[in-house]
Design a protein that fits this description.
Shape: globular
Structural class: alpha/beta
Number of helices: 8
Helix content: 25-40%
Number of strands: 7
Order of helices and strands: EHEHHEHEHEHEEHH
Length: 201
């Protein structure tokens, strides 16, 4: 099940959380119908000035949500501009809401407005370098420019946070690269009784 995003007038947790129902077919996804057990609540956060302004369609968020729904997850979507404070607040809200998986799309490039890594890394309890390595390796099979991506994965409390590129192709390629390891990663975090209270809480 996917819940589409709506732009926030102010970057508050309530405003970036999507609540309306939508069909995953809206994204026009053509990938296979794998299933993930058990269902996990996933928050997909699109980071884009253009989508917030209404000058671009949220293709990446739609496709990611559709694919995650195909994998058996319950997906909510949010939208924020390329603003570090807004990004950080949305991630904190998703962690506080108990989402085991948070996927951000956008803001991982090299321009001055690509601030997703700078906004999220200070919130992490620790980074998991293998996530970024897998995503860049998958992208490199399509284009050498994948090496310029600053995609990454890390942990806040019991939540896994993954940042993927903002292009629909790059976002889906990155997600597919992680599909084989996500179930074990999420199970490990959910069963880890040693987890301490995160800095994002």
């Amino acid at each position: 099940m996917t819940r589409p995003a709506r732009a926030a007038k102010a970057p508050t947790n309530a405003q970036v959380t999507a609540r309306a129902a939508a069909q995953s077919a809206e994204a026009g996804a053509t990938t296979g119908g794998d299933s993930a057990e058990p269902e996990t609540r996933v928050f997909v956060l699109t980071v884009s000035d253009g989508v917030v302004a209404g000058t671009r369609r949220d293709e990446s968020g739609l496709h990611l949500a559709a694919r995650l729904a195909e994998l058996g997850h319950d997906v909510e979507r949010g939208l924020v501009p390329d603003d570090p404070a807004a990004i950080a607040e949305a991630v904190r809200g998703a962690v506080a809401a108990g989402h085991p998986l948070i996927v951000l799309t956008g803001g991982t490039g090299l321009t001055s407005r690509d601030v997703t890594p700078q906004a999220v890394r200070p919130l992490l309890d620790y980074e998991a370098p293998g996530f970024g390595e897998l995503m860049r390796a998958a992208g490199a099979r399509s284009t050498p420019l994948a090496a310029l991506s600053r995609s990454f994965g890390g942990v806040i409390g019991r939540s896994l946070v993954v940042a993927v590129p903002g292009s629909p192709r790059g976002a889906l390629e990155s997600l597919e690269a992680l599909v084989p390891i996500l179930p074990h990663a999420l199970e490990t975090l959910s069963d880890d009784s040693s987890r301490h209270e995160s800095r994002a809480g």
